[in-house]
Write a sequence for this structure.
């Protein structure tokens, strides 16, 4: 049962090369949401779905959280790994989100591989829906999931931003050049997919 008084969450805005990100943290410093400017309505809808009517106040996220987000966009692909994320989705959604965090930066998985990773290989559509309900973009890297044919598929922040994130990770990942490629990048090169068959 939710408390009568809404929880207070902090909304920080962090400049990145792909646009301003909205970073929502709680009093303990856990990340509750991360989305891109221009998608505040979606972020607020997901926050309400997960936490009810939380009070959002403009402020600064804890320095370690803010620094990790800035470091990731600066090229340190492991900077987000240690951040605490707090969500309240279903058990299935939380399993999908945990599997997303297990995809190494610079690699991708298909929706089928994502479903198999949580032990539900036939739940491809459900895994895709859970992926789309992820309130913590980038940290819970839903952008690393692609179509079965290797194409970029829907991303709440837009396909171009998804392409940018994948190219950013590929450029910063040490072994990226050795991976097999499947889908075309904006520059016309081929983007790697994960080599792991789950």
């Amino acid at each position: 049962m939710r408390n009568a008084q809404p929880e207070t969450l902090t909304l920080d805005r962090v400049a990145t090369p792909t646009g301003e990100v909205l970073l929502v943290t709680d009093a303990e410093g856990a990340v509750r949401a991360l989305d891109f400017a221009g998608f505040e309505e979606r972020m607020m809808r997901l926050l309400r779905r997960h936490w009810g009517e939380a009070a959002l106040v403009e402020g600064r996220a804890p320095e370690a959280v803010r620094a990790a987000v800035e470091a990731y966009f600066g090229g340190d692909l492991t900077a987000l790994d240690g951040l605490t994320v707090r969500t309240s989705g279903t058990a299935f959604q939380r399993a999908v989100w945990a599997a997303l965090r297990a995809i190494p930066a610079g690699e991708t998985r298909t929706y089928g591989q994502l479903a198999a990773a949580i032990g539900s290989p036939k739940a491809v559509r459900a895994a895709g829906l859970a992926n789309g309900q992820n309130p913590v973009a980038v940290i819970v890297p839903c952008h690393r999931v692609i179509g079965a044919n290797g194409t970029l598929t829907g991303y709440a922040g837009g396909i171009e931003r998804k392409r940018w994130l994948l190219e950013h990770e590929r450029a910063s990942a040490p072994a990226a050049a050795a991976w097999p490629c499947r889908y075309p990048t904006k520059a016309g090169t081929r983007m790697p997919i994960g080599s792991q068959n789950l």
